[in-house]
Design goal:
By secondary structure, the protein is of the alpha+beta class. It has a domain of 141 residues: Nucleoside Triphosphate Pyrophosphohydrolase, CATH 3.90.79.10. Helices cover 20% and strands 35% of the residues. It contains four helices and eleven strands; from the N terminus they run H-E-E-E-E-H-E-E-E-E-H-E-E-E-H. Strands 1, 2, 3, 4, 5, 6, 7 and 8 form an eight-stranded mixed β-sheet that branches. It has a three-stranded antiparallel β-sheet with strand order 9-10-11. The longest helix has 13 residues. It is globular. The two termini are 30 Å apart.
């Protein structure tokens, strides 16, 4: 990766600009019936020791949905907000990153959550070192992860599971003792593909 100051931001912007991120059209077959409520998340990226890192959180066990799951910071879009504004606001509320320090890089493909939200993942550059200030009502922990870890084929499992009577393949990223799956794994997969870091996983 180019070592000029902030050149990685320019490079990533170019990678995320084309093709355009996929959006789910209204009424698309297979979407949950309540899909349409908007949410957004932030995929924070920063450079440390010459490589790209991101920041993930683990939700607390007292939340109404997605308890104890590993996730990017984010939440529902409020009235009058855009998806970028919601992503940086929620990130500030959950892990204390100041919105004015987050530089937008681009969007990833929209994902529909099992709870019926249309989720826009935003990628943003944040200053290094990242020192999160955790909102303990929502977040149990926040931890940095190098992208080389989640792009390592040996750390990836394609697990066959049964959902509603149908067998599906669930991608799971293993980071230390943690398992990243579901919507967060989908966002990571999309990010790695767009950055040219997609791993080749043996069948």
């Amino acid at each position: 990766m180019n070592e000029q100051p902030h050149s990685w931001i320019v490079e990533l912007r170019q990678r995320l600009a084309s093709p355009l991120p996929r959006k789910h059209p209204p009424g698309e077959p297979g979407l949950p019936g309540r899909a349409g409520r908007q949410a957004s998340i932030l995929v924070p990226l920063f450079v440390e020791a010459g490589e790209l890192w991101t920041l993930l959180t683990r939700r607390t066990d007292n939340l109404p949905t997605h308890k104890n799951q590993i996730a990017f910071p984010g939440g529902a879009v409020e009235a009058g907000e855009g998806t970028w504004e919601a992503a940086v606001r929620e990130t500030h509320e959950e892990v204390g990153l100041e919105p004015k320090t987050v530089v937008p890089i681009g969007e990833l493909d929209e994902i529909v959550s099992v709870s019926g939200f249309r989720v826009t993942p935003w990628v943003g550059a944040v200053p290094s070192p990242v020192v999160p200030r955790i909102n303990t009502d929502e977040i149990a922990e926040a931890f940095p992860v190098p992208l080389t870890a989640v792009s390592n084929p040996r750390m990836i499992e394609d697990r066959v599971v049964e959902i509603d009577g149908h067998q599906r393949v669930l991608r799971v990223y293993h980071v230390g003792s943690r398992q990243i799956w579901g919507l967060t794994a989908g966002v990571l997969t999309n990010l790695l593909e767009r950055l040219g870091m997609a791993p080749v996983v043996d069948e």
